[in-house]
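User: I'm writing a tutorial on reading structure tokens. Could you give me a worked example: one chain, its sequence, then its tokens, then a sentence or two explaining what the tokens reveal?
Assistant: Sure. Here is the example chain.
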Amino acid sequence: MKRYLAIDIGASSGRHIVGWTEDGQMKTEEVYRFPNGVTEIDGHLCWDTEVLLSHVKAGIEKARAKYEIQSLSIDTWGVDYVLLKGDETVYPVYAYRDSRTEAVIPKVHEKLPFSELYRRTGIQFQPFNTVYQLFADKEAGRLDGVTDFLMMPEYLMYRLCGTKSHEHTNATTGGLVSAETGEFDPEIIRALGLPGHLFNKLQPPGTAVGEYEGIRVVLCATHDTGSAVEGIPMEGNAPYISSGTWSLLGVKVPNPLTDEASRAANWSNEGGVGYTRYQKNIMGMWLVNRLREELCPHKPWNEITAEAEQSTFEETVDANASAFLAPKSMVEAFDAALSVKPRTIGDYFRCAYRSLALSYMNAIAELERNTQTWYDRLYIVGGGARNAFLNRLTEEATGKQVIALPIEATALGNLKIQMEADT
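And here are its predicted structure tokens:
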């Protein structure tokens, strides 16, 4: 029986999941889990890639100790990357929540107005998009002598098998890929003065790129949401929310939508496996995770949601406001955004959950207008799908039938792509 290994790494944790088919169904087993998070270096938020790599290898060894593994693949969050000079890693490796791009965004838009960037790429504005991060590196002289840039999962797989690859779905998250051709856009690269040799041909999910100690290394949809959408057991086509640190809300469309309505509403057109993911970033469980860290780090989630349900606090915030992206204190960010300060822990969490549900409602209304399609169902996968209170609020706010699937959709999609590549 062939077994495959999905290594799914999010901004706050990672997991190694072995998968195989049995009696026509996919079976899975989690064999390793580890924490992840940014570290602060000289006032900047960074990733410790060596710690990440050590966990990747430790989890592989756990899987190998129990099973013979046919292939493996790694998916992570989008937009972040590692610079290389030959085989030498350039440090620090900045995290997307770092504020270093703030000063260069106006400079980028002087050279290429956002309306033109959007027309060319169909990628929503986010201050941490790869295009702004790379321009910040250029301005700081960090690109001098650099031979390669690899998105985070590409870098980790390179460290395993020695191959420098560029996978399509993750590349599209950064605002540098042409919506028309599906390759890096040479006009954007020239306009911004970025080194052209960094931008190589993109490879589709399912491409084998090498081996690690006898295990084949395969590119899945290396942006975690790309794999998550592949892992949803969806009937027909319906909107989805991949609910984790971020809530990625979207729907599959055959071709990118780069019209003015999509730009004005800040929708993204990201790569999928044979389709486009028309989707929007919503701040997601980051809000409640940070509130919990400050207010009640040891309180179980079921107690937190019970207190939120009992609360009568009615005010909400704009869950996507920049004040919530990387505040020193999430509690203080909520206090500043509200006219009435919450009095209890339940008040804060009720406010956060209701604010998320309203964000979902508004996003689905935009999605239906922009695609000119009405949907009656909404699929929710990922860690947030386990939150029955938020699911109920979402159903009430959107008027859609919520189908919550508390499954490891990202790992399932990662495994599915590996299995299909092996047929």
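What the tokens reveal: The domain at 233-408 is CATH 3.30.420.40 (Nucleotidyltransferase; domain 5). The mean pLDDT is 96.
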